[in-house]
């Protein structure tokens, strides 16, 4: 789940008390710049379920998933590339996996974890599936950080897609042990394609999904390899029984896939970490890759260019105009403070963005 961040730009040399005549001729301008047109990261005094106190939710207009504001998520450890690179907060690559945008986001991911994770954990144990889950989540965070650098990101979806990738590679590497293998493969591929297709919607971090899936797919060849039935039968055969031939524990193709996957994992994670810590923006090297995370349509926009509102104050009249759609709103404020001006700007941005999302 992607949340935008907010930057505020003010004039370099503001005039705190301009003369009335000068104010009439040269209105004081304040600029509010947002990095994204996403609509549910704006601060508001109104909360949902305020009786819960500190556990109350942000306004539904700001976060429809019943959760906190983006500033709260950022403080709690959301993935913020600028902080990872400039402030050496690499731990955010891990902590963002356990944060969610809201109750609905959490419930959806936990439902997926129950459906996918229980079966895998019963067959392969807590340690192997736990490592696959954690490393896949890290892989999703790395790919997300390389492509989505102007917003923050939270959620366990990358790790969940890692479990899906592990299921697919487990089916491939243990191919000879399964009955109805073709039907199982087609069913799994359809499920994966549908879930990845959902990622092209706005506000969804599909790069985390793709990175988690690729990591889990390779990890499945390493962690989820099964010994052959012939070797198991031979190992636990009664003493004195005669064996016609010696059975190997793993087939040759399983060993080849294990080696190739391990090499690709080490190289991939190393290259991704080096690129991230050097501040590389992967979008500069792949002009079309942004379509993997959001495809614009007539019903929504994927534009992440800065959106700004210009405020003109003449006397007690404060007029706000948003540059993206030229919508204007006028307020009557006597000697407005900077906080009041910012609050008015946020109100205009709320109206603008909620209308964009309903189109």
Automatic annotation (TrEMBL):
It catalyses: Cleaves type-1 transmembrane domains using a catalytic dyad composed of serine and histidine that are contributed by different transmembrane domains. GO terms for molecular function: serine-type endopeptidase activity. The chain crosses the membrane at residues 39-57, 97-118, 130-148, 154-175, 182-201, 207-225, 255-277. InterPro entries: Peptidase_S54_rhomboid-like, Peptidase_S54_rhomboid_dom, Rhomboid-like_sf. GO terms for biological process: proteolysis. Its main location: membrane. It is a multi-pass membrane protein. Belongs to the peptidase S54 family. Pfam families: Rhomboid. One of its GO terms (cellular component) is membrane. Residues 88-224 form the Peptidase S54 rhomboid domain. Serine protease involved in intramembrane proteolysis. This is RHOMBOID-like protein. It is found in: Membrane. It comes from the Eukaryota. Its EC number is 3.4.21.105. Keywords: Hydrolase, Membrane, Protease, Serine protease, Transmembrane, Transmembrane helix. PANTHER family: RHOMBOID-LIKE PROTEIN 4 (PTHR22936:SF79), RHOMBOID-RELATED (PTHR22936). Residues 1-28 are annotated as: Disordered.
